[in-house]
Structures
1.
Amino acid sequence: MNVFRRPATAADMEFARTVHHRAYREVIELQYGSWSVDAQDKFFADAWSAATHEIILCDSVSCGYTCIENRKAEIYLRELVIDPDFQCLGIGSSIVKDVLAEATAREIPVRLQTHLLNRASNLYRRLGFRETGRTNTHILMEWQPAEHAPRQIVRERRHTRR
């Protein structure tokens, strides 16, 4: 399975809106009780920008979108949305692991927020994110590269005189 990202274009907007609605419907209904297409269209339109988003592809098939903000002191994973037909295949893990590798190289944290009832929080925890706070609607999470650096075994050299 080859997972990669490409820059979004204006032509991707309808695809991304459809993925947004398919991916978020269950979470929104669980957390808030109802789904409004008009409200979700507005949430999507307010957040979507082809200039800042990327389309996620799995074996050349569009399966989601992401918005990753590479800031000076952190990487903020603003959105990672995978179509339900492609969830639980390792696609989200692959994208997050790429982000974590970049954060490790830059020695900066990765931060994100996810809905309280979004099962994606389990993925983030499995990949080493820890909860740093909560709002009424979201879990705030962070991953620190220093906490996940490979441990180096330091061997002491013992010098003896003969």
Note: The helical segments are 13-32, 37-47, 91-106, 120-126.
2.
Amino acid sequence: MSDHIESIVAEPKDLFEEELVSWIRNDSLHLILLATERCNFRCTYCYEDFAIGRMSAETIEGVKRLIERRVESLDSLSISWFGGEPLLARSVVEEVSEHVVRLARERPQLAYSGDMTTNGFLLDTAAVERLVQLGIQHYQVSLDGPEPLHNRTRIQGNGKGSFGQIWANLLAIRDGSTPANVLLRIHLTPENLPMMPDFLLCIRKTFLNDGRFRVLLKPVERLGGPNDTTMEVVPQETRPGILAHLESILVDGKEEGKGLFSAPDVCYASRPNSFVIRADGRIGKCTVALRDPANTIGNLLPDGSLDLDNDRLRPWLRGWASRDWETIGCPYATFPRTRQEEPTPEFS
């Protein structure tokens, strides 16, 4: 139980092992921070239970101390903000980010980048301008199709729709000069597919002439939420053709692939130098498997050290040892144990 991660390869002998070495290097660190696990939305396909609230003061200090402990040896630091909805705990985001910016300013060799997965409802002009100043320049915002369909699935906690405010915020980014890059994650369902061609044409005309915007088309999945048994998803066998057709609408008349986002071959959960730090200080590897005990691989201590259990960590890295690209692409899809829900303590 220590900061040390067991080495699982000696010298790079081929492309696969070279890829592994690039992710196991001690001079690179990726932290996925859950500023809060509460959310102002109740999306119909969501898998989270929102039981844990805002990141504790002890965990915030632990995160700052962790970065201090590692910063002298780092060439690259990447911080991803996740939730819940991270902008519900914007002060946590700002406190940690201000600390990182100060550390990075003193170390010109450090390449620091920040990104955020947000529902976009609170991503107004003032928020974007402030967060970009703190190095958070990349945002992922989801849309579920045109307004009537989006408002059926991406519902606010008060039962109201969310499309109008999100769209207004996206237009404000487009019309402003802040260097904020936005990945529009467009969810696909059997219900919204008939309207997708017209909606994507609107997306293309509205945003894709601005190089700060890109699109990821993503079929909705059953990820363990309460509506999984009744939720319809796009069949696996039809997805390649559907995606090819819809992507052609987005890139029509453009340079091939411009405006589209391609998911990386290696999932962050397979990367030895990537960790999820939850609001209560638990350390995980995956932002989907939040209720699975197997996803808890240790704890962040107040002094910034990582109390890791290598026996729990090892299954997340098994794709490297087996040389299996499918496993490193999503280690949780075929995780070698029975998934089960874990009672999550209340944390305010």
Note: The longest strand covers residues 136-143.
3.
Amino acid sequence: MDAVTLADYREHVARMYLADTDLAGFRRARDELFRTHPQSALPVADRAGFTGLRYFPETADARVAVSMAPIDAKPDDTVEIDTGGADGVLRYRPIGVLDTPWGPLTLFWLHAYGGGLFLPFRDGTGLPGTSGSRTYGGGRYLTDTVKGTFGRGLAFESPDRVRLDFNYAYNPSCAYDPQWACPLAPPQNRLTAEIPAGELTYHDDPT
């Protein structure tokens, strides 16, 4: 059953994020998951010859602790993002604005049963050769906890202070195969500055 394999995939993701491994170990585990799991976002035809995802080199500059200005969101403040697929329109409630060195980013809460933190972003929109060339044009995610991405990309130090590590920025599933539909970064999370950290494009040469 697809539901069973999907549940298994999400358990693997959560265990991978919570494991006591460094970034290199995390990336190796993620490659193995992409290569072998039936719920991998990779096209089936790509899996046998898959040699690993591509990333910027690890950098300490991508690790920052930033303040978060809470947002007392009203019902009309909910952001609706159309996935373009079977999930339809997803509703997100903004809960805070993160003051990052690259510009402000809004942290969202999925407005659904159980909910979850969601931080999509699209960087380098004001620079040539970045978003859409070196990184996926639709943007990347730093966390989506409904999918089990706990702690590595985003963790709270206090209610108004957040630790971010963009070395863990990753592509949405639609970056690998057009059969997937994904919520992408809304306008308030499109940065003109580049964040040269995390995952590169899957299909294109980054050089």
Note: Residues 35 and 48 are 7 Å apart (CA to CA).
